[in-house]
Amino acid sequence: MQTLEGKIYCEPLQIRDCGLEDFRGTLELQHKLVEQRRQNQIGDTILLVEHQPVITLGARQSANKLLIERDKLAAKGIDVVDIRRGGGATAHNPGQIVFYPILNLQELHLDINEYIRTLEQIGIELLEQLGVEAQRRKGFPGLWVKNNSQFWKIASIGVRVSRQITHHGMAINIQNDLSIFEAIVPCGLENVKMTSVLNETGKEYLMQDVKNNLSQLLKSHFKSKIRNQKSDIRHLPDWLRRPMPTAGEYSKTSDIVSSLGLETICMNANCPNRGQCWARGTATVLILGNICTRGCKFCSVAKGKPLPADKTEPGRIAELAKKLKLQYLVITSVNRDDLPDGGAAHFRDCINEVRRQCPGVKFEILTPDFRDCQAEAIDILAQATPFVFAHNVETVPSLYKKARAGGDYKRSLNLLKFAKDKYGSLPTKSSIMLGLGETDEEVEQVLKDLRAVDCDRLTIGQYLKPSKDSLEVVNYVTPAKFDLWKQKATDLGFDWVISAPFARSSYFAEMEAAK
Question: Concatenated DSSP letters for 349-403?
């Protein structure tokens, strides 16, 4: 058994009880263990801790809202610490159980979204053991308890992944003093009320018993994830198996994106090309938050009520372009039906700010369908040309009700036509998934419909189920069939086509810069 200071519960997953600890000391310990894990000097390790009163601020500045000045908090014995995990402001104090997993996701065969879902499930099961029924809320991080028609937050999640090694983690309110949350807007979510096990049940527990229960859940879940992930891989045909990404440029891209508090569609949509693209130093930036106003069943992006547009985002994207030395930047967004212009002005501002700081960068924008404001949105975006204008029809019309209930096939075609009419010679582009039960005749008609609105460029790829709640794959299309579709699309007049199992709308998009 490898020895660490503190209490060891098991191997190969080592769980260490840090007791009641100052946050800054635990943060320093996390950094030390992350580096040791990266160098394989230790195995996967999880820290369990209660903290002295502290408020921590995450990487997303717009979600860091203090309601009391720092000096007044210090006078009350509450520390304030800026850190680089995901999410916004949260608080810790005695009686709250916090756990910090330091795991190698590559060795566990987990992506970040599956990892977060695992943490949530562990929290749900722990709370159930303590007499509390907690649940996820799509689009709202953490765990929630429903009281009548209101949701109260009982657990917070904020993680960071650096070169495939996780740190930071999850905090669950057991019997802590909840008044500390009155100093912040928890995670930047207005009108959120916090609760605890004590609040919900009236029962107090020995924190050591809570830690023992949590330790058993952690061991159980992460062992089963290794088995399940290996089993799932065997169901894929050979041409859809890919090795996990290695370090180098992948890690560099991951670290820079995370440090700037930016979202990517690569992570939020569980894109299978993430390792390959990030290893080339490219990523598709997801603007306007990671909460969509629609709930398309082919997509794993969360649905809910989005936060207001973050005015600091254009500057942070420009910083990303500089740090990665980008020559080609793809920008996409969730659907923002809550905004009068569908988010078009924010697209424009992001492009113009990057262009101001990095004049040589070329752009591709992958937009939503701007449901109620297409003409207005196209006019606004004209203030940021040139770019490649992309909008995905995604699938054949007969599957819209099943896969894309919030969309409309004719509306999507109309948007591409609007863009071509407004922007003239600027390229337009779309993408379609195969494997949802479409027929060859339906696919061919979609290609003809796209050419009828002068769509220039096309990607065709295999649908892969991105989350447990997403649509099932109906069939896996062979590489040879993708080659046939590429030839068909070329014959119809598309001047740039990628048709392959792993093709996605922004896959090798930087190659378009040479056109």
Answer: HHHHHHHHH-TT-EEEEE----TT-HHHHHHHHGGG-S-EEE---BS-GGGHHHH
Query: Is residue 1 in a domain?
Result: no
CA distance 327 to 358: 9
| One domain for residues 475 and 502 | yes
Q: Which of 73-77, 144-148, 332-336 has the highest mean pLDDT?
A: 332-336
Number of domain units in the chain = 2
pLDDT of residue 10: 38
The answer to whether residues 217 and 244 belong to one domain is no
Return d(Cα 244, Cα 106) in angstroms, integer: 6
Per-residue pLDDT for 11 more than 80?
no
Instruction: State pTM to two decimals.
Output: 0.60
pLDDT digits (tens, 9 = 90+) for 37-49: 988 888 899 999 9
Largest CA distance in the chain: 73
Other Cβ atoms within 10 Å of 78 Cβ, number = 19
Does position 269 have pLDDT exceeding 90, yes or no? no
Q: Strands 54-57, 14-21: parallel, antiparallel or unpaired by DSSP?
A: unpaired
Instruction: Express each pLDDT in 293-308 by its tens digit.
Output: 998 988 878 788 888 9
- Give a yes or no: residue 98 inside a domain: yes
User: What is the signed CA dihedral for 21, 16, 168, 36, rounded to 10 degrees?
Assistant: 110
Q: What is the mean pLDDT of the chain?
A: 85
Find out whether 88 and 60 touch, Cβ atoms under 8 Å: yes
Structure tokens at 258: 């995370």
What confidence category does residue 313 fall into, taking pLDDT thresholds of 50, 70 and 90? very high
Parent domain of 211: 7-230
| DSSP states of 169-192 | EEEEESS--GGGGGGB-GGG-TT-
Structure-derived torsion over alpha carbons of residues 400, 270, 263, 502, reported in degrees to the nearest 10:
-80
- Paired strand residues for 57: 82
Domain termination residue (choose one: 186, 201, 230): 230
**Whether residues 273 and 129 fall in one domain:** no
**pLDDT attached to residue 279:** 52
Q: Are residues 270 and 334 in the same domain?
A: yes
| Cα(105)–Cα(114) distance, integer angstroms | 10
Q: Could you give the CA distance from residue 477 to residue 483 in angstroms, rounded to a whole number?
A: 11
